[in-house]
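anyone seen this seq b4? input:
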Amino acid sequence: MRSADNWPELKWYQWVEASWLPAPEPVEALSDRFAGYLQGYSTFADEPETFSEWLRMLPLAALGTPVRNYRGEIVVPGDDEHLAAVVAIDIGSGDIQRSTDVILRLQAEWRWYREEFRMLFLTDEKTELPLLKWGDGERVVSVGGQPKWVRKAEPQVKIDYPHFRDYLDSVFAWSDSPALLAESDSLAPDRLEPGAFFLHQGPPAEVLVVIDVASSSSGDRQMLLAQALNPAENIHVIRPSRATPWFPVRTDQPVVVPRVKPYSWNELRRMKQLRTRPEVNCIGELCPKAQRSSRKPALPPRSVRR
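predicted toks r here
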């Protein structure tokens, strides 16, 4: 595997070194693999430390890597005409990180890199799931079929990545399309941007994530798309054909992708600015950067014009 010495962006993706869960080995960044497909197009304008910049640099597994489900079974062969790449990130240890959790996983991992420890998500019943509560030793349990916070562990001065990963599994277990609807807003097609997603409310509930957007001087647009279906499987980039990984943006037509019914543009959404009201006081390393003396350097700007 390439190291952070010659691939410094790897440090943006904590799971590469910190996760104990099996995952495909990363070999190159997403932007490197798909550069050159769209001559005359420019990718979505971004700034350092934005979600779009982070998505654009996601680590990918080697060409020919198949999509596997949580049981290790191949669900999409590595040479499938509609498989562009497998993202080098773990699935988890069971059927927990399902399709609607893909956008939550990516958002949460980006926020973790940015040290936004006050992040929170919602259950389908709208119960708040703040990371700080988890750090305070509380866990979500079922009481009469409803989620309830109960103290189960000692408070932590610092949440490490394995504890954060366990927290995410708890979020995934309690959230599906109702929670995702509450945490997102409808998005007009002309506002299409990286990090937006299409949502089939189901059943089964399914999500299609917009990884990148490119436009030409004439106003034509293309988008790079990723998904993971149910049961839990590898997050992977899809393509309309072997010729290109980019899907043309045609808002007068549904978005046709493999293995899923077409998505309507009325299903396009983006995450709200995630609420960060903590249920417990921050302590030590759990406090946000603005309240601490040391600050991590910003992500370096990177040009990815096609």
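The two ends are 27 Å apart (CA to CA). The first helix runs from residue 15 to 18. kinda curious what u guys think
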